[in-house]
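R.M. (postdoc): so does anyone remember the format we settled on? I'll just put the structure tokens first.
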């Protein structure tokens, strides 16, 4: 099984929701991203960030993309996040879990998806 890296509960600020009133104010969505480590043995041997995915840069990219435009659906946000991540870091796939805190009497609503770079072209 290949090695993976994870960003767990990265805070994204975005305008998201079907009702216009919900999209007017930014809200926090928590994002967990799991993606393959480029080459564990090469990165470990070289101890060089250029041999793997810079997860700090990935986190900043995901935050920037989330803020870029208003969206109605978690599904749209997930595809947009996956597209920029796979293109910028040339990773073959990314698994995302997005948690939104909008419904009373629930901890959160979440979307989980595995998206492949070839399907995001």
């Amino acid at each position: 099984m290949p090695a993976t890296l994870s960003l767990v509960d990265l805070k994204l600020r975005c305008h998201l929701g079907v009702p216009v009133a919900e999209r007017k104010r930014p809200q926090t969505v928590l994002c967990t991203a799991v993606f393959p480590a480029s080459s564990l043995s090469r990165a470990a041997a070289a101890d060089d960030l250029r041999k793997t995915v810079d997860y700090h840069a990935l986190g900043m990219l995901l935050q920037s993309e989330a803020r870029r435009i208003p969206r109605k659906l978690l599904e749209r946000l997930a595809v947009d996040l996956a597209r920029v991540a796979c293109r910028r870091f040339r990773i073959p796939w990314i698994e995302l879990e997005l948690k939104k805190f909008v419904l009373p009497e629930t901890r959160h609503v979440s979307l989980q998806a595995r998206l492949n770079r070839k399907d995001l072209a």
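R.M.: ...and that's the designed sequence above, right after the tokens. Also worth knowing: Residues 73 and 85 are 19 Å apart (CA to CA). Residues 74-89 form the longest helix (16 residues).
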